Amino acid sequence: MAAVPVSTNKKALIQRFDRETLYGYLNPGAFLQASGVELLNLSGNLLLVPYSEIRMVSFVREFEAPDPGERRLFTTRPKTPGLWVRMRFRDNEQMDGLLANNLLLLDPYGFSVTPPDASSNSQRIFVPREALKEFQVLAVVGSPQRRMPTVKVKPAKEQMGLFEQP
């Protein structure tokens, strides 16, 4: 029985600042190159799109045109742990996202966030640093540090105290 190769490529859309959208497949572990994003388009051509041209890269469920009415900002405080961030693009549009609160997951080329609308076509979004004019951390979301409850333990009656007066 032959082993079936597992595809690691994910469906993705690259929205460019010229409002053109590129459709194709990305390898989530290797799509970020030093000079841009590597996309295998639907025609089977490998493209290298420079970061300066990219507004955002969306990992999507289906190849659909981006919905202009899609919610871009959180309406309430998110419940999922992470950093609640607000990004302002070079064209002055804003978008919120949840960034992992882990320094090991930060990328030198940009930010990978979870979008505010969980029911949208976009599951994960990568925003290049060059696409942003402003980046703001609004809150750290997560469970607060819980202290261990202090329990007063009474010594057993048969145990004598060290500093007790007879």
Describe the structure in brief.
This protein has 166 residues and is mostly beta strands. Helices cover 0% and strands 40% of the residues. The protein contains no helices and 10 strands.
List the keywords.
166 residues; mainly beta; ten-stranded antiparallel sheet; 10 strands
What does this structure look like?
With 166 residues, this protein is mainly β. The chain has one domain. It is built from no helices and ten strands. It has strands at residues 10-16, 21-26, 36-41, 46-50, 54-60, 82-89, 94-99, 110-114, 122-128, 132-141. Strands 4-3-2-1-5-9-8-7-6-10 form a ten-stranded antiparallel beta sheet, with no helix packed on it. A hairpin with a 4-residue loop joins β1 and β2. It is elongated, with a radius of gyration of 24 Å. It starts with 9 loop residues before the first strand and ends in a 25-residue tail after the last strand. The model has no long low-confidence stretch (mean pLDDT 85).
